[in-house]
Design a protein that fits this description.
By secondary structure, this protein is an alpha/beta fold. 24% of the residues lie in helices and 24% in strands. The protein is built from 12 helices and 27 strands. α7 crosses α8 and α11 crosses α12. It is elongated.
């Protein structure tokens, strides 16, 4: 069934719909996502998954996850499990459609034999550096390999010996026989198979030759009945090779490769190679560092699957490599959390306040709403006592015009509690720094009692000193100073923002968070949305990550 076009149809869906209207396939619509298990998924991977998954859904098709595990030196079972977990967490569950490229080894080898028999492939003995020279440049055509005209029988013999482990790594490759003068470098007799003597995490030592992705990819698609191989834009120049392989193998109703733009975000790194450098050189706290755009990092920071999917829907299908401002991603998580999280009072830079006319030793439990926009989240009790903490920035001895918070002789409302008036300021005798405030409260101004007397312009948050929970707060900013990546050996230290992670010690939070679970999210009044760190919080040590501020503060163009 081909759906009619809707007004919000992306270019990639429009392209597929128009092609399907010509009924090129006798099978159902089917897409795939083929990650290599040599690292963790990131936001760019999520975009590719989203594109393939939603296209399959749109046309009542199937979505396959295929692990591209044809390079035993780089791949690991750890990454396989992580990829599966991340895809399911994102909400793009392939169900039973999980496949491994290595399971098609016999079929791919048979395809290589078929190409040799048809005079379309040959074994080449050129060493890697010579092979590169023979390919030519973008301005100069390549040269035929001296081994290009070997007989079919000799090529079959050599390929079998390669498979049987007779030759060392790098000594021979199997190449397609296409056109060394082609303006497309991918068609200049590309390598199809190389020799790798290494243990494979699934097949062990069964194989010592492994196919290149450009050769394995179309064959795997054909075996699985894929109709659309939706790839990022850098594979556009590879499409002629994809089609050449399928054509030379005589695949009926061959899959179609179509491309979409590659996604990058301002202030972060989405190149797997550069991500690995950041991790291995210790610039970040592992692959799940909350400053990284890996799915694991975003998950640890507190992003939700829904907010990431919302972001994907917002940007739609892009045609070229696009740099998207990260504020669009942050907007998505704010929209999702604003009426789903409990709003908690947290004091990031505590200033002690003693309420001199409040009885010593007395504790009053005040009722406050959990979320002013969602009554269904209910209410909670907050302890009020003689000694409290407020934000240091909420007091000013010499308040500027328009300052509506606390100053000497002025009055403010404590959120959910009483009016207080500052009567005295206590300074450090050496530094002159404000150490504590002595205030009085008006018991008639208790919130929720219908008090209609005098009014104050300012409301500030607070926590009870004796009941508050201590925590370390991680505040995140852009990982990079700009969007330029290192060139010519430039060190990461000159590019990484030294203030991308700021830790606030001895933050005071109301006791409601004492029993918070790792990954639990809150809104901290005036400060933004936060998440209990799932990796660092243990025992009595509470570490909380800021997901996003209440408004965009990155100020990046």
């Amino acid at each position: 069934m081909v759906h009619p076009r809707d007004n919000n149809e992306s270019f990639i869906l429009k392209l597929i719909r128009e092609e399907l209207e010509q009924s090129p396939f006798s099978r159902d619509m089917c897409t795939r996502f083929p990650p290599e298990p040599n690292g963790y998924l990131h936001i760019g991977s999520a975009y590719a998954i989203h594109t393939n998954y939603t296209a399959a859904q749109r046309f009542n098709g199937a979505f396959h996850l295929r692990l591209d595990d044809t390079n035993p030196r780089k791949e690991d079972l750890e990454y396989v499990h992580a990829i599966m977990e991340d895809i399911r967490w994102l909400g793009y569950d392939p169900g039973d459609h999980i496949y491994y490229g290595s399971d098609y080894s016999d079929d791919i080898y048979k395809a290589a034999v078929t190409l040799i028999k048809r005079g379309k492939a040959y074994v080449c003995d050129l060493p890697p550096d010579e092979l590169t020279k023979y390919r030519g440049t973008l301005k100069e055509p390549g040269r035929n390999s001296p081994y290009r005209n070997r007989s079919v029988e000799k090529n079959l013999e050599l390929l079998e010996k390669m498979k049987n482990g007779v030759f060392p790594d790098g000594s021979k490759v199997l190449r397609a026989k296409i056109d060394m003068a082609s303006p497309n470098m991918n068609l200049r007799d590309p390598v199809l198979y190389r020799i790798i003597h290494a243990e494979h995490y699934r097949t062990g030592r069964d194989w010592c030759i492994y196919p290149m992705y450009d050769f394995a990819h179309p064959i795997q698609d054909a075996i699985e009945g894929i109709t659309y191989s939706l790839c990022s834009i850098e594979f556009k120049d590879h499409r002629p090779l994809y089609e050449w392989v399928l054509n030379e193998l005589g695949i009926p109703e061959p899959p179609r490769q179509r491309e979409f733009g590659r996604l990058s975000l301002t202030g972060v790194v989405t190149s797997k190679r550069f991500l690995r450098q950041l991790v291995e050189e210790g610039h970040v706290d592992g692959w799940d560092d909350p400053r990284l755009p890996t799915i694991r990092g975003m998950r640890r920071r507190g992003y939700t699957p829904g907010s990431i999917r919302r972001f994907m829907e917002e940007i739609g299908s892009i045609r070229a490599h696009s740099m998207v401002h990260i504020s669009l991603l942050d907007h998505g998580i704010r929209q999702e959390l604003k009426d789903q999280t409990i709003s908690v009072m947290a004091v990031l830079q505590p200033l002690k306040v003693i309420i001199t006319n409040y009885p010593e030793g007395e504790v009053e439990w005040l009722t406050v709403a959990n979320n002013s926009e969602n009554e269904a989240l209910g209410e909670r009790k907050v302890p009020f006592s003689r000694t409290i903490y407020i934000e240091r920035e909420d007091f000013n001895e010499e308040p500027p015009k328009g300052f509506h918070r606390l100053s000497l002789g002025a009055e403010v409302r404590l959120k959910g509690a009483y009016f207080i008036r500052c009567e005295q300021v206590v300074h450090d005798p050496v530094t002159g720094e404000v150490m504590e405030l002595h205030c009085t409260y008006d018991p008639l101004t208790k919130s929720g009692t219908g008090f209609t007397g005098r009014k104050v312009k300012g409301t500030i948050h607070w926590v009870s000193a004796d009941h508050s929970v201590q925590a370390d707060l991680h505040l995140y900013d852009s990982l990079l100073l700009n969007d330029d990546l290192p060139e010519n050996g430039e060190p990461w230290s000159s590019i990484v923002n030294p203030h991308s992670l700021v830790t606030r010690k001895d933050v005071r939070i109301e006791p409601f968070v004492k029993l918070a679970l790792p990954g639990q999210r809150f809104q901290f009044f005036r400060h933004g949305y936060f998440c209990v760190d799932s990796k660092s919080s243990a025992g009595n040590k509470l570490i909380i990550n800021r997901i996003v501020p209440l408004k965009d503060t990155w100020n990046r163009e």
